[in-house]
Amino acid sequence: MARRCELTGKAVLTGHNVSHANNKSNRRFLPNLCAVHLISDAMGQSYSFRISARALKSVEHRGGLDAFLIKARDEELSLKARRVKRQIEKRLTASAEAA
Questions:
Q1: 31-79: per-residue pLDDT in tens?
Q2: For residue 94, is it within any domain?
Q3: Residue 47 sits in which domain range?
Q4: CATH number for 18
Q5: Who has greater pLDDT, 99 or 84?
Q6: In a domain, 29, yes or no
Q7: Calpha distance 38→99 (Å, rounded)
Q8: Which of 4, 83, 89, 99 would be 11's cystine partner, CB 3.0–4.6 Å?
Q9: Does residue 6 belong to any structural domain of this protein?
Q10: What is the pTM of this model?
């Protein structure tokens, strides 16, 4: 399983451990991934994602999963997140046409 956030695309970075003697050894900076269930208001169900803690804060700041996905670029989202985004957009347009 890839160590990549499904909503923001944040992935593993590389760098160095630097000792006091300035010796450098390679290391990896892993994103803080959390398995969470996010509830979609438009769909009325929850979806499970593996996202970074920072992305979870961004989702809450934007007002929920629906608002976050509508504003998000498709290049950043995983395949599962893009499918959920399409479902939400269809449901919102259908409800707008009915009203």
A1: 999 999 999 999 999 999 999 999 999 999 999 999 999 999 999 999 9
A2: yes
A3: 13-98
A4: 2.30.170.40
A5: 84
A6: yes
A7: 27
A8: 4
A9: no
A10: 0.87
